[in-house]
């Protein structure tokens, strides 16, 4: 499909720069069969049914933005994308053109050797530390990898907590599964009282969150692979659920990736699934997700899930009513 079909006017001032306080006070646009309803996240227990299963992504954002020096003494900025093997990470770096194989880059508590420079502009770095030792050093060396739409991508001390969901347990993401940012212990208790069940999956959100679609047609866009896992317990809960409610596009992408090859089951591996209108959904019945940017793969996904014209109308309503967009913004509830 033509990428310009997924364009819409979004005033820059509607891109949220901080999350709602408290988190569950964010607004929620209920895109229902009978029309659009302005609600808040706290209304969610009343919008779901006993026996519904909320599926959360329990990935944890790592401080993946690193500032350091090259052998010449010049500065270098690195964004970790995905661990390829023990100690080796696929990364974006600036300035890439001044790097060469074998260069040793120095960061606060880490050093890394340039192992490879790829044609598409990414590099592979081999770090001097591994496992838990690497993650501990990364906490001292790295910064929260905010998208460039939030304060130019410059994180501060608040973002260490703000850009992490209450479900974050498994280190590995370079972007938050932002639909989960709206949940609080009080909201989870209200959902339990309403008879709503929960389950978790893991999908480490990667570079695709940051990359704009530069192609003119969706067929020409390549998604970056992301690692994910569905446990046996979660697979069984999904099979038994009355309705499956995905909290965010990341959980949805993982579940639909697994279901492409048969019934829901325990699974582990990488997915580069790219969901556009015409996709046949097999698992997810409802989707709670934030508002996404024009021409983005995420807006294409919600258009595939709920219908392009319906989502354009919903987003026009959200802009008119001054909903807050993107990672720290408000959210909507969609039916398939």
Write structural notes for this entry.
- The chain contains eight helices and 18 strands.
- The longest helix has 13 residues, at about 310-320.
- The protein is of the alpha/beta class and about 325 residues long.
- Strands 2-1-18-17-15-3-13-14-16 form a nine-stranded mixed beta sheet. A seven-stranded antiparallel beta sheet has the order 8-9-10-7-6-5-11.
- It folds into two domains: about 5-60 and about 160-335, QueA-like; about 65-145, Beta Barrel (Thrombin, subunit H).
- It has helices at about 45, 130-140, 160, 185-195, 230-240, 250-260, 295-305, 310-320, and strands at about 25-30, 35-40, 50-55, 60, 65-70, 75-85, 90-95, 105, 110-115, 120-125, 140-145, 170-175, 195-205, 225-230, 245, 265-270, 285-290, 330-335.
- α7 (about 295-305) packs across α8 (about 310-320).
What is the element layout, followed by pairings?
Elements: E1 27-32, E2 35-40, H1 44-47, E3 52-57, E4 59-61, E5 65-69, E6 75-85, E7 88-94, E8 104-106, E9 111-117, E10 122-127, H2 131-141, E11 142-143, H3 159-162, E12 170-173, H4 185-193, E13 197-203, E14 226-230, H5 232-240, E15 243-247, H6 249-259, E16 267-271, E17 286-290, H7 297-306, H8 308-320, E18 331-335
SSE succession: EEHEEEEEEEEHEHEHEEHEHEEHHE
Shape: globular
User: Structural class, from secondary structure content?
Assistant: alpha/beta
Which residues form runs of ≥5 with pLDDT under 50? Answer: none
Distance between the termini: 20 Å
Order of strands across the biggest sheet?
Answer: 2-1-18-17-15-3-13-14-16
- The CATH architecture of the largest domain can be given as 3-Layer(aba) Sandwich
Number of contiguous helices: 8
Supply the number of structural domains: 2
Helix content: 10-25%
Report the CATH superfamily of the largest domain.
QueA-like
The biggest beta sheet reads: 9 strands, mixed
CATH class of the largest domain: Alpha Beta
What value does the Rg take, in angstroms? 20 Å
Mean pLDDT: 94
CATH fold-type name of the largest domain? QueA-like
Strand-residue fraction?
25-35%
């Amino acid at each position: 499909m033509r990428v310009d079909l997924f364009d819409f006017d979004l005033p820059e001032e509607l891109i949220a720069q901080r999350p709602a306080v408290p988190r569950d006070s964010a607004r929620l646009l209920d895109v229902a069969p009978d029309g659009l309803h302005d609600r808040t996240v706290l209304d969610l227990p009343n919008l779901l049914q006993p026996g519904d299963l909320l599926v959360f992504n329990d990935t944890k954002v790592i401080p993946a933005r690193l500032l350091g020096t090259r052998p010449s003494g010049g500065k270098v900025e690195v964004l970790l994308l995905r661990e390829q093997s023990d100690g080796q990470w696929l990364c974006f770096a600036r300035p890439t053109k001044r790097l060469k194989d074998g260069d040793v880059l120095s960061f606060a508590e880490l050093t890394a050797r340039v192992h490879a420079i790829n044609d598409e502009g990414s590099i592979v770095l081999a770090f001097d530390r591994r496992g838990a030792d690497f993650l501990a050093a990364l906490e001292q060396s790295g910064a929260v990898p905010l998208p460039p739409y939030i304060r130019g991508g410059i994180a501060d001390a608040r973002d260490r907590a703000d850009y992490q969901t209450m479900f974050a347990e498994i280190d590995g993401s370079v972007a938050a599964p932002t639909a989960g940012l709206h949940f609080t212990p009080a909201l989870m208790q209200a959902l339990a009282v309403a008879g709503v069940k929960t389950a978790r999956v893991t999908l480490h959100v990667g570079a695709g969150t940051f990359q704009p679609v530069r192609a003119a047609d969706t067929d020409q866009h390549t998604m970056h692979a992301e690692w994910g896992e569905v446990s046996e317990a979660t697979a069984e809960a999904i099979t038994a659920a009355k309705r499956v409610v995905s909290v965010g596009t990341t959980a949805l992408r993982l579940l639909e990736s697994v279901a492409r090859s048969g019934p829901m089951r325990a699974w582990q591996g990488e997915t580069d699934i790219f969901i556009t209108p015409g996709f046949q959904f097999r698992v997810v019945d409802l989707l709670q997700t934030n508002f996404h940017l024009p021409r983005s793969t995420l807006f294409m996904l919600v258009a595939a899930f709920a219908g392009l014209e319906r989502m354009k109308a919903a987003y026009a309503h959200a802009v008119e009513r001054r909903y807050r967009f993107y990672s720290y913004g408000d959210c909507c509830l969609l039916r398939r």
